[in-house]
Amino acid sequence: MSLQPLVLPDADAVGAEVAATILDRLAAAPGRPFLLGCPSGRTPMPVYRALAGHAARGVDLSRLVIVMMDDYVEPDGSRRVAPELSYSCLGFAQRQIVAPIGQDMEIWAPDPAEPDRYDDAIAAAGGIDLFLLATGARDGHIAFNQPGTPRDARTHVTTLGEATRRDNMGTFPEFTSLDMVPTQG
User: Fold this and answer.
1) Side by side, which strands form the sheet with 34-38?
2) Range with the lowest mean pLDDT among 24-28, 94-98, 120-124, 149-153?
3) How many whole angstroms separate alpha carbon 174 and alpha carbon 132?
4) Any idea what the Cα angle at residue 185 is, between residues 46 and 100, rounded to 5°?
5) What value does the CA radius of gyration of the chain take, rounded to a whole number of Å?
6) Is 14 exposed, middle or buried (0-12, 13-18, 19+ CB in 10 A)?
7) Average pLDDT in the 20-28 region?
């Protein structure tokens, strides 16, 4: 089977296409939650805007479960940063994904104190139905998995490399210097 690349004119067109794929897959999985693996950051924003547009036109997204792939961790590694902080990935999901959709939806985020429970909960729900992925511009990190992370790694707390931290300075403008960016995720 040969797949032809789909060339779209801009990020909003990509967002609309990906949102349509999510809606198709959601419709094909009736009667159960649909787990959507989501990153925070700039790259997926057109997808989230397109989903909010569908919701505004009456599409029911209440079975969509937003499964966050990462979050910043407090310096002692015991808990994620407070969702009220602008750079919290859980807070990002609340403000940038769920609030614009305007429907009651679940958000899952890992607990750094018990990372294995996150993997277990995802497995118990049948796994992630679809992942949206974005890579770090400088080092290609996916979520907070740093270059060299084994492919079969489970949810874990990691020290963030300088390139990852610098990338996130562009996402969160309140980080005006590298020493302001959390060192663990």
Assistant:
1) 106-108, 64-68, 34-38, 130-131
2) 149-153
3) 25
4) 30
5) 17
6) middle
7) 96
Task: Let me know: does 48 contact 16? Beta carbons within 8 Å.
Answer: no
Confidence of residue 138 (pLDDT cuts 50, 70, 90): low
Whole-angstrom CA distances from 144 to 36, 41, 66, 93, 177 are: 17, 12, 17, 16, 19
Strand pairing report for 106-108 and 130-131 = unpaired
Q: Please write the tens of the pLDDT for every residue from 145-185.
A: 778 889 898 999 989 889 888 888 877 888 899 999 999 99
Which token pair is 185? 């995720």
Q: How far is CA 132 from CA 1, 21, 46, 177, 181, in A?
A: 24, 11, 12, 29, 24
Helix (H, G, I), strand (E, B) or coil at 83: coil
Q: Which residues contact 80 (CB under 8 A, 6 or more apart)?
A: 71, 72, 73, 74, 88, 89, 90, 109, 110, 111, 112
